[in-house]
Amino acid sequence: MKNIFRVVSFLEGISYLLLMSLGLYYKYALNDPSFVKMFGMPHGVLFMLYIILAIMLKKEMNWNIKDLGIVLLCSILPFGTFYMDYKYLKK
């Protein structure tokens, strides 16, 4: 379960960075919203998987409410999932 969560968190972080960089650049600088549509759906699915897996993994990893809150907060911060992987999953 932990390895699946690590893969999902990595992919979620990459999709978020692509959405926030390429997607928004093409949308606002070039008036082409196709990249936002292309990156938005996979990011949304990965985001929901990240949240569900984090809640399921709480007991296995012995996270308290504060740790779970930080792990969930990392899903909405740029580069947050990479920090979370280093801080909470590398142990």
TrEMBL record:
Cellular compartments per GO CC: plasma membrane
UniProt-listed InterPro entries: DUF3817_TM
Ranges where the DUF3817 domain occurs: 4-88
One Pfam entry name: DUF3817
Keywords: Cell membrane, Membrane, Transmembrane, Transmembrane helix
Primary localisation category: membrane
Annotated transmembrane regions: 7-26, 38-56, 68-86
Membrane topology: Multi-pass membrane protein
Compartments reported by the entry: Cell membrane
Leader sequence residues: none
NCBIfam families linked: integ_memb_HG
Name of this protein: DUF3817 domain-containing protein
